[in-house]
Amino acid sequence: MAYRRTERVEEQLQDKRDRILQAVRQVVSEVGFRGAQVAMVAEAAGVATGTVYRHFPSKGELFAKALALNAQHEVDVVAAVAACEGSAASRLSDAVRVFARRAVQARRLAWAMIAEPAEAEVDAARLVYRRAFADVFEKVIRDGTAAGEFPAQNAAASAACVIGALNEGLIGPLAPEAPDLSNTRALIESITAFCLQAVSAKPYPSLRLVESTS
Amino acid sequence: MAYRRTERVEEQLQDKRDRILQAVRQVVSEVGFRGAQVAMVAEAAGVATGTVYRHFPSKGELFAKALALNAQHEVDVVAAVAACEGSAASRLSDAVRVFARRAVQARRLAWAMIAEPAEAEVDAARLVYRRAFADVFEKVIRDGTAAGEFPAQNAAASAACVIGALNEGLIGPLAPEAPDLSNTRALIESITAFCLQAVSAKPYPSLRLVESTS
DNA sequence: CAAAGAAATGAACCCAAATTCATATCATGT
DNA sequence: ACATGATATGAATTTGGGTTCATTTCTTTG
User: Fold this and answer.
1) CA B2, C1' D28: Å apart?
2) Closest chain B residue by Cα to residue A187
3) A135-180 pLDDT, tens per residue?
4) Of B117, B134, B187, the CB nearest to A174
5) Which of A56, A74, A95 is the last residue in one of the domains?
6) Which residues of A touch B191 (CB under 8 A)?
7) For the whole prediction, is pTM greater than 0.70?
8) Are A74 and A157 found together in one domain?
9) Structural domain range at position B50
10) Which residues of chain A are within 8 Å of residue B156 when distances are taken between CB atoms?
């Protein structure tokens, strides 16, 4: 025998793997999942196409892994903010604001992470983190309701709506192109306010009227 | 000369075209844009694959046409509700409710119509109708603000958020599977309430506090 | 009914992009 | 330096599905 997988090789291997994952992130943030090809990723990582397949069994699993890496980090950040001291209202608006700020920094990537359909494995991985975000918001809403800060409501539905509002208002197809930072800030505040009021406002009398007449 | 395109043939042609468009609707409502193939559509329409190409120049244009047909109808329905007599609050909640009710009747189709990415032509067509829905909601919000019913706000952003909340809360990936009608009704009311309160609630003092501290 | 012109058919073709694999290169231990 | 085993390479292959087109079937008119 004349070979043994040494420490150094192990590191190089891990490093190459990491570079490929980073390359996915970069390519996806430029062209989205739709336009991302394995050859592009290899190019961006500085390896040959075939090398990608020595590290990952398929495009779907590679991309899913890359998404999971990023998404978990984002979930952690938002969850940390949501777990701070303070009223439920301030925690919710801070969490929403942080999510929003980070998303608009890299809109294309954010949209790909949260919504853009792709290979089945990617969709499955995304669903996990989508739910994780929703769970963070849902917990804060429940806390607020328990503390009497927010009215009784379907917390799961409200959390899903918050995600939806953020997605569509900030980074989805309806979001305005915002090359300008001050507009972006204002937009984030509008959306944060929308979400906070939605979960915190006491039901309007007019709502009941509408319900009884329709 | 020994042939002329007669009335009857013209009708048969139009009929076949219509059947193909209907078949797209059916196939998409079953497997979404992702899984919809031209061969399936042809099969569902009871014609050969090649026939599809005698009526439409490409898959993208066929699917875009089919989407436009449906979406315009939905926009008209929602717009009609939004144009009724009544307070802005009642018009908005009725419009949201109608959108929601119709969407849950055919969730897969609704999601495909409003959000699922597909061929470039389809995306382009969808954007038009997405905006059309947003415009309907935006107009009601503006009316409400002008009448002093709603507080001042970024109406365009709020309208986008309403679309997003509906999409995610009702028909998107986070929406609960709801085989049961009563749950569906309750969900629709939760989401309608969420949207109405978001646009109609007076800003909370706590919001200002949060803004000044962050 | 025969001829002429359209429309329908579906198997063959084409293309883009994922995946493979024979070959080349690199690491290790004697 | 050499032998051995592992990793990297990228051109060639495979594949899924949209599109084409030579052939068949249908309609109309003389």
Assistant:
1) 6
2) B157
3) 999 999 999 999 999 999 999 999 999 999 999 999 888 888 777 7
4) B134
5) A56
6) 157, 161
7) yes
8) yes
9) 1-56
10) 176
